[in-house]
Structure formats: C-alpha cells, structure tokens
Amino acid sequence: MTAATRQEVLNLYRSIFRLARKWHAASEQMEDTIKEKQYILNEARTLFRKNKNLTDTDLIKQCIEECTARIEIGLHYKIPYPRPIHLPPMGLTPLQGRGFRTQEKLRKLSKPVYLKSHDEVS
C-alpha cells in the first residue's frame, strides 16, 4: 500500500467516526440515534479490520469506492444501513437455456458497489 493510499484509508476511517459522532436518526428518537451510531461504528470497525491486510491496489481502491458510496448514500437517504436491491430469484433477462447458476452469476455481477462486502459481514 502506498503512502497516499494509506492516508486516504485513514482519512475515510476518521470521517466515518466523525459522521457517527454527528449522526441523528431520521425518526429523531434518541434510542434510534444511538442504535444507528453504534451500527455505523461497528460496521466500520468490522470492515476495516477485515480488510487491513489487503495488498492488491485494485482491491483497496474498490473498498475505498464502496466506503465512499456507502457514506454518500447514508447521508443522502439519512439511513446508515445499505440499501437493498430487489431482484426476483429468476428475474434477470431470461435467455434460452439459462439455468440457476447463470442467474446467480448475473445476480452477483449486478450487485451495486456499496453492497459488495455487506453479505460477507452480516
């Protein structure tokens, strides 16, 4: 990891903790705010610890993009949880002979950048 990439990762980590400190739930209820702040902190710690030994620069850039996207989506929609995608089980373009494996492969490819690590953690 280069020094610039390391600094970018550390800045993201700090910005997430600043965001959690200033976070207010959309419902304006204190217990919801506390739960959401705790979720933000736990999610950040878990994902950053999981990825701390990455050395591939492309994979690191992908994780940075995912983190940035999740921050922006969380701020925009005022929810800290990743937005789910809704695809019916066999709902991707059916061509002749497409079976379940192909559908699963297409489903995996169609997953948005902000959900790449969500299934691995939750």
TrEMBL record:
Pfam families: Complex1_LYR. It comes from the Eukaryota. InterPro entries: Complex1_LYR_dom, Complex1_LYR_LYRM1, LYRM1. Coiled coil: none annotated. Residues 7-69 form the Complex 1 LYR protein domain. GO terms for cellular component: mitochondrion. Belongs to the complex I LYR family. This is LYR motif-containing protein 1 isoform X2. It comes from Octodon degus (Degu). The lineage of its organism: Eukaryota, Metazoa, Chordata, Craniata, Vertebrata. The gene is Lyrm1.
